[in-house]
Structures are given as C-alpha cells and as structure tokens.
Design a protein that fits this description.
Number of helices: 12
Strand content: 15-25%
Low-confidence stretches: 128-134
Number of domains: 3
CATH class of the largest domain: Alpha Beta
Distance between the termini: 34 Å
Number of strands: 15
Bound molecules: zinc ion
Radius of gyration: 26 Å
Largest sheet: 9 strands, antiparallel
Mean pLDDT: 84
Order of helices and strands: HEHEEHEHEEHHEHHEEHEEEEHEHHE
CATH superfamily of the largest domain: SMI1/KNR4-like
Oligomer: single chain
CATH topology of the largest domain: SMI1/KNR4-like
Helix content: 25-40%
C-alpha cells in the first residue's frame, strides 16, 4: 500500500545503498544510438540525451563525466503523489551542505549523492532508533501467528506421524532439540510459503540441507528466493535462539532475530518487497564462524588445557551435570569453558567437530 502521509514517509525511509557508483553524462542523439551500454536512467533534452550510467560502463564506453555518485534507494513505497516528500528529503540533505539528485521511479524514490559523502547521507536518512519491542512470550505468540499463516499464506498441514521421528533425527544430527515455539509450529504446519519470498522448509528438507561449513547446532529452516538460507542456532547461546542470515557472508553472518517467533512475526509484518533486516536497526549483531585451526580455535585450546582434569571434590554446579569440578572452578571442564566463552564447547564429544560460532550481539 503506497504511503501518502509525509510524516510517516520521512520516519520510515529505509535507505538502501547500492555498491555500484554512477556518473551523469550527456551525449548527442546519434552517439546515443551507437551505445551498447544500458543506462539506469535516461532523459531526452533539446541539447542531447542525459544518461545516468554505472561508472564502469561509462569508462568502457569512454564517456565524459565529472564526479561519481552513489545511489541510495528509499525502500518505502512512496506514492508518486506524496507532495513534498522528495523536497523534504532533499532539504534534509542539502541542509548538511551535500548536493543531491533525485529520481522518482514507479516504485521508489532514488537519491544520487556524491560518493565521497554518501556515508553522511546514510546517517541522515537512517530512521531514529526504534523503541525496543516489548517481549512477548514466543509460545503464546506462535499460537496467534499460525492461523494467520494458514489464512493468508500457503501452508500444508503437518503429518503428525513423521514428527517424533523428525525430532529425534534433529536432536541426533544437530545435538539439540528444536525450541518449543518451533516445535509447535512444526506440529501444525509444514512446507510453508510466506508471501512469495520465504519458504519455511519441511523438517525433512531442512535436515537434508548441506551444512558442512556450518556449526553443528545451526539448523537451516528457511530459503529465500536467491537460494540463500536462514538458520537458527539450536544450542541457545546467551539464552536466546539466534536467527542467522547465511546469505550475507562467509564466516561473519548477521543475526536478524532472537527467536523463531520473532522472525516469523517480523517477516509477516514487513511484507514481501524486501527483507526487514536490510534496515540495520533490525540487526542484532554478528555470528562469526571459525573453522578449525583458526586463531580462536587456538585460544580455546589453550584455555581448555589450562582448565586441566576434573579432579575436584564437588559436583559441577551446572544443572544435572554429573562431572566433578576442575581445580579453578565450581564447574566441570566443559561447563567452565562454556561459561567463559559462551559457545558450545568444541572439545566434548557431542560438540561440533570443526566449526564454532562466536556471537557479538547488541545489548
Ligand atoms: Zn558440568
């Protein structure tokens, strides 16, 4: 639904910066006809054809230009009739002494700003930090979301007979069971498609995903149109279930929610045009994955060696742990390690063999 209210528009600009740089050129009509490059924008004037083209294209076609520009797309779906929206945005930027060229296309408004000042512009456009969403109980909340998924999206009813088998397989392959809200979800539905964007995989499909590069407890459960995957860390680091976008890095992934329910809630509310986490304020931080032999692995090994054998006189303080404490702690070796490093201990038999995740999350 296009947004006409100017105040709402300005507070909901979702600026997206493109990697590519652009240049403005003017060519004669006959020169234009010979060009093989594809401009992102063109306009015919009496004096010639104005083009906005990727800098790399302009260079390959030997076009003249001065200055390179960065492109920011305002992801809010602005109604072309929203009087004053462009003017208000331009004013905000020019008040900071930065020049700006705007292009209103059918779906969005686009800003071209000098490349060397684009970071300042991005700061100006970022929406003010949002108030933290009051935490709701994920279990109550998932029960409210499931009927909405059945009525407004595509979902199959779960086949109950396969469930206990699936859960057992998950616990053995991933080292941990699914969190309670996710269990409720899979008891009710399977093969869910939300908008035309998010495919929540059936348990079987999710179990079969190749995850050789991922920590053992990362369960990839959702596929994006790009083929990229979203995973949940079942090991519950820091008392949460991080939802991780696997499509945005090799070893440095973005955490986009702290529970399965929060993720569902946000994709349902955000709509289908984009992923809600392109908005940086929706990101919780990063999950770094370390492969074997990395620096961090070495640090962990040193700490593990330092802890020494479990030959203390008490039982480990961790719930239901039968081991004795190590010399320097009231915990056993594994639990002391996990207390300090906040990652599953890689040295105990049921921990991931070759990968570790380390979280850097915002408060
Ligand atoms: Zn213990």
């Amino acid at each position: 639904m296009p947004e006409k209210n100017l105040r709402v528009l300005l507070s909901s600009i979702k600026p997206r910066l493109h990697d590519e740089q652009f240049v403005f050129c003017s060519v004669l009509e006959r020169e234009f006809k010979k060009l093989t490059i594809q401009p992102i924008c063109m306009f015919r004037e009496a004096e010639g054809v104005s083009l906005i083209v990727a800098k790399s294209d302009a260079d390959s076609a030997s076009l003249k230009y001065d200055g390179t520009w960065s492109l920011i797309t305002c992801e809010v779906n602005s109604d072309l009739n929203a009087v004053g929206f462009i003017a208000a945005m331009s004013k905000m930027i020019s008040d900071a002494g930065i020049s700006v060229n705007t292009v209103s296309a059918f779906h969005h408004d686009h800003l071209f700003v000098p490349s060397d000042r684009v970071e300042e512009v991005m700061l100006l456009l970022q929406e003010p930090p949002q108030k933290p969403v009051p935490k709701r109980d994920p279990i109550d909340n998932i029960r409210e979301l499931i009927p909405m998924i059945f009525s407004e999206h595509r979902a199959h009813k779960a086949l109950g007979s396969l469930l206990s088998q699936g859960h057992a397989l998950i616990t053995s392959k991933f080292g941990e069971p699914l969190p309670p809200d996710m269990r409720i979800f899979y008891e009710r539905c399977s093969d869910v498609k939300i908008f035309d964007r998010y495919s929540i995989l059936s348990l079987q499909k999710a179990i079969d995903v190749d995850r050789s590069q991922l920590p053992r407890s990362w369960f990839p459960f959702c596929e994006l149109p790009s083929g990229g995957l979203i995973a949940i860390d079942l090991s519950e680091p820091n008392g949460v279930y991080p939802i991780i976008d696997l499509d945005c890095g090799d070893f440095d992934y973005i955490v986009i929610a702290l529970s399965f329910t929060e993720f569902l809630d946000k994709i349902l509310a955000h709509g289908q045009d984009s992923n809600y986490w392109i908005d940086h304020s929706e990101q919780y931080g990063t999950a770094k994955v370390h492969l074997k032999n990395s620096q961090v692995r070495k640090k962990y090994e040193e700490y593990w060696d330092l802890l020494g054998p479990e030959n203390g006189s008490q039982r480990c303080m961790a719930d239901a742990c039968e081991n004795k404490n190590v010399k320097l702690s009231v915990f056993c070796r594994q639990h002391q390690f996990e207390q300090v490093h906040k990652v599953p201990c890689p040295f105990t038999s049921d921990a991931p063999a070759d990968t570790l995740a380390e979280y850097v999350l915002k408060e």
